[in-house]
Every structure is written in C-alpha cells, then in structure tokens.
Amino acid sequence: xxxxxxxxxxxxxxxxxxxxxxxxxxxxxxxxxxxxxxxxxxxxxxxxxxxxxxxxxxxxxxxxxxxxxxxxxxxxxx
Length: 78
Known about the structure:
78 residues; 4 helices
C-alpha cells in the first residue's frame, strides 16, 4: 500500500497528465466529461488542485489509457 505522501504524488501526477492530455487534444472540460463520465465541476476542481475519490481516479486512468493512441484534435470554430 502506498504511503500518504506517495499517494498524493501519484494523484498529482495523474492530475497533471490529464490536464496536459486534455489541452494537447484541444478538449474542453465538457468534451472530457463526455468521454470519461466525470462531471465538469469535478474536473474543474481536480485541475485546480483538489483531491479526487477512487472512482474518479479510476475513470481518469481509464480515459488516459484509452485516449493515448488518438491524434490531437483540431480546434473547432465557435
């Protein structure tokens, strides 16, 4: 089992990778919500440094695993 400090480091790393991947894919929080099922409010809190529960953590890990093969998306005109 991970010590508390190590667990926090893992969570912070996942947070950073999710944020980086989302931005690299030119995705908004709404698009990420549609792909991973984590609410927009929760995603926003996570990106601002708040913690996440185990279910959210696993959904984001699954999204990273499934999304890693996709090429970057082109920005859509709004």
